[in-house]
Design goal:
Blueprint (H helix, E strand, L loop, with lengths): L9 E2 L4 E2 L2 E4 L9 H8 L6 E5 H5 L13 E5 L2 H4 L20 H8 L7 E5 L9 H13 L5 E5 L12 H6 L9 E5 L7 H17 L6 E4 L4 H9 L4 E4 L1 H4 L1 E3 L2 E3 L1 H7 L7 H29 L9 H13 L8
Parallel strand pairs: 3-10, 4-5, 5-6, 6-7, 7-8, 8-9, 9-10
Antiparallel strand pairs: 1-2, 11-12
Helix pairs in contact: 10-11
Length: 327
């Protein structure tokens, strides 16, 4: 790839700039999510994500979720489904409650415009053609005109686990009504290279028709992955890894590692975990600063990764745009 695609873009509904890193909260894998959120909410100054499912079932308190400048409200598909995201280290059993588009819309209608809200469309469990996904999302978003629309694109066929990127690229003009375009990381490819290449292809297709909309990668909050996908044209990233690991110097490590390396080995593990999670928010803020600085300078020193990691990023970027990576 001759030129990186990392730049500052805008959520035009609110005039908010990207890149945006979004700490997420979910009851899936985190049974005490309400306590976590209540403890950390005052540090959620920039952005945060909660699920309409968790609000409906009281796993989070609806009057306590408006602390950040931008609030992303996810559709609840992650909590409804049994599978886990790519950052889950345990894959524990999950038994979801009833969830459908009627319950979703009923819960969304209870949200208050205390802060800027980005709404993710309902994630239907069955695969649908892209045009039908777009039509259903557009109708839903029209019911909530004060919220920014974040269209989550999903696979279109039962036998496919991945997004049909060729279909998205060919029909990219149909995405014009939405403020943000979303894709889950695991559905963009089976390898880091495939995912990065597909993000680049989608960004190029958008640019070719003058749609400079932010791309949101769901389930991705690993710092080095964020840097790579940002360089390929993605803008908004959310995930739960900040609750599972400590981002020690930008590298996710187990909380036990963080406890020892930080000299906290004499503290209770619950206290250590909360301290690590709190520090992760500072790490994410620093990463946003570095990405913004790089967007203005294109100076690779500003991006703040090690020489070894930068070399690996360059090797990946050299292959981006190669037609054989679309096969």
């Amino acid at each position: 790839m001759k030129n990186h695609q990392g730049k500052i873009r805008n959520i035009k509904k609110f005039g908010s700039s990207t890149p945006t890193l979004v700490p997420s909260f979910s009851s899936k894998g985190f049974p005490h999510v309400k306590d976590l959120h209540n403890y950390l909410k005052q540090k959620l100054t920039g952005a945060s994500l909660v699920s309409a499912y968790d609000l409906h079932y009281g796993n989070l308190e609806i009057d306590q979720i408006y602390e950040s400048d931008i609030l992303f409200v996810d559709s609840g598909g992650y909590e409804r489904n049994r599978e886990h995201d790519v950052s889950d280290i345990y894959g524990t059993l999950h038994f979801p409650n009833e969830w459908n588009d009627s319950l979703y819309e009923k819960q969304v209608s209870k949200l208050k415009s205390i802060t800027d809200i980005v709404l993710v469309n309902f994630d239907y469990p069955e695969p649908l053609p892209l045009e039908e996904q777009i039509d259903r999302a557009r109708i839903q978003f029209e019911k909530f005109p004060n919220m920014a629309s974040d269209f989550l694109c999903k696979p279109t066929l039962d036998e496919e686990l991945l997004i049909n990127v060729d279909d998205v690229v060919q029909k990219v003009k149909l995405l014009a009504p939405f403020d943000i375009l979303g894709f889950t990381e695991k559905e963009l490819g089976h390898s880091i290279l495939e995912r990065a290449n597909n993000i680049y292809r989608i960004r190029k297709a958008l640019s070719d028709v003058n749609l400079d909309k932010p791309i949101h990668i769901f389930g991705c909050l690993d710092p080095l992955s964020i840097v790579l996908f940002f360089l390929c044209g993605a803008d908004i990233f959310d995930g739960l890894s900040w609750l599972r690991f400590s981002f020690k110097n930008g590298i996710p490590v187990y909380m036990n590692h963080y406890s020892i390396s930080s000299g906290l080995w004499h503290r209770h593990e619950n206290e250590v975990k909360v301290m690590g999670i709190s520090e992760n928010l500072d790490e994410l803020s620093q990463l946003v600063y570095r990405l913004e600085k790089f967007s203005r300078s294109s100076d690779w020193d500003d991006i703040g990764v090690t020489e070894h990691d930068l070399k690996q990023l360059m090797l990946i970027l050299e292959q981006i745009g190669d037609p054989k990576n679309n096969e």
